[in-house]
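Quick question: what would this complex look like in 3D?
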Amino acid sequence: MQDNLQVKMDEFLPLRDVVFNTLRQAILTGELKPGERLMEIHLANRLGVSRTPIREAIRKLELEGLVTMIPRRGAEVAQITEKSLKDVLEVRRSLDALSVELACDRIGEEALEELRKACDAFEAATRTKDTKKIAQADVALHDIIVQATDNSRLVQLVNNLSEQMYRYRFEYIKDESSHEQLIEEHRIIFESIRRKDKETAANTAKLHIDNQEKSIMKQLRMEKNSRRHSL
Amino acid sequence: MQDNLQVKMDEFLPLRDVVFNTLRQAILTGELKPGERLMEIHLANRLGVSRTPIREAIRKLELEGLVTMIPRRGAEVAQITEKSLKDVLEVRRSLDALSVELACDRIGEEALEELRKACDAFEAATRTKDTKKIAQADVALHDIIVQATDNSRLVQLVNNLSEQMYRYRFEYIKDESSHEQLIEEHRIIFESIRRKDKETAANTAKLHIDNQEKSIMKQLRMEKNSRRHSL
DNA sequence: CTACTTTAAATTGTATATAATTAAATACAA
DNA sequence: TTGTATTTAATTATATACAATTTAAAGTAG
């Protein structure tokens, strides 16, 4: 773990939430690697706080499934197995389909217009070839859809499930050969939501996840391979 | 809140988990009522532990959505609104449908046999008119299905969502007039899983939730009414 | 040199102490 | 009485202290 964990005092959150966000981000970006132990005193010193907020943050990470607790041994970053990712994607596939279906019913004129812009913005982002920008544009687009469902529980769950594979999605987006297809799928989802064509919307959303799954699984296997050869 | 919160030392869990389970149960059964404050010293004294495990338990309840945090004022039991229940049920509807569809593909012979027995057990339970027994039989039956999906994330999410309405489901099950229909729906779900008829299974599962939703919403409105008249 | 004990260090789990903030109570003026 | 300061009490937020347990290390016998 590099020494670039830093507590941002920008906002006025309780320390436990600052720590929670910091650790969460570190796990999702891969800065803290699967299997790595989260030792309280270490983290407390590094972040310049006491153990209490660290522990409270770990409790939340535990419930989110990002860390695994081992009794009397503490927390470690959860291992991501092929199976666990498949499980996550299987649920997400269903919830993304639900999201676009609900969006068909409930999206407003303004949000629809935003969605159209987000499609354009995504296309523009792919042309910059800036992976971070592309990823952001993609998140923004999907966020408009899920927000349009007007179901806060669904929003919470979809966001949580998405985050579980941030690390991998990044690599996925790097692959330029898939950009055209992504643009096209976004376009179809937008059009079918506009026409309130639930079936096409849902099917495309599922396809969208299927493609992601294929790419992520390929990566995972490569990672596993390279681990086997290097260790 | 009555004075029957007790820490069970049966198992050998960290205190924070014991406290978490205790508070969770108290909230789900309605022993701790929506809006009620969770004061740390109070709970610590009552449960005979220090504030630390109480706080850690509250952090987990927070992430689960069972309590609401108010900065510098602590936690209170989350209010359940009609909207929030609708949101939960909307997601559950989708995930229950997914569960039975996956069960069609993945259930084994033994589990299928268990499911058949669970259907019979549920029918038998309704005849005892023991609400608690009926509820347990219902949970057991649905648990077999969701376990058959072999998707641990799905299991976790469905269980969590189900628990959110334990309080209300209890009243629902009390209503004997609905028992025949419940038995029939369980039977159809079992039969369609056996025949691997995903469409019927999914539709019936959705119907199952729809019926629950109607009943719960009726109750909620009654509750709201009686509150208005008594306050 | 290996297998087993014993000891020491590190780490978590729990409890308590201090600081900061908020809510309530009291006092006082209009 | 009502509205506003001021003080007091209660409560959370954070830090530290202590206890229990585990891991690693150092010896020691075979």
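Answer marked as accepted. Chain B has two domains: 15-77, 82-230.
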